[in-house]
């Protein structure tokens, strides 16, 4: 199974950057500051996480701390998944 980071890199590369050359940034690069994503892309990433990982992203969780890098997104997703396991 692919890591969450790898899934995110692939999704961003193919569906946001429209690149077949992979994701060219380090995982800790700011998606917003580098102009990689905009507000519409954030919503696309929310849907991707919800559909792919079966997690529920609340509106209050859509903040830069969770969505500003591949690393942050992956950590956020892992935290959400761990809550599913406990419930």
From TrEMBL:
Carrier domain ranges (all copies): 2-81
Domain of life where this protein originates: Bacteria
Parts forming coiled coils: none
Transmembrane segments: none
Protein name (Swiss-Prot/TrEMBL): Carrier domain-containing protein
Organism in which the protein naturally occurs: Coleofasciculus chthonoplastes PCC 7420
Organism taxonomic ancestry: Bacteria, Bacillati, Cyanobacteriota, Cyanophyceae, Coleofasciculales
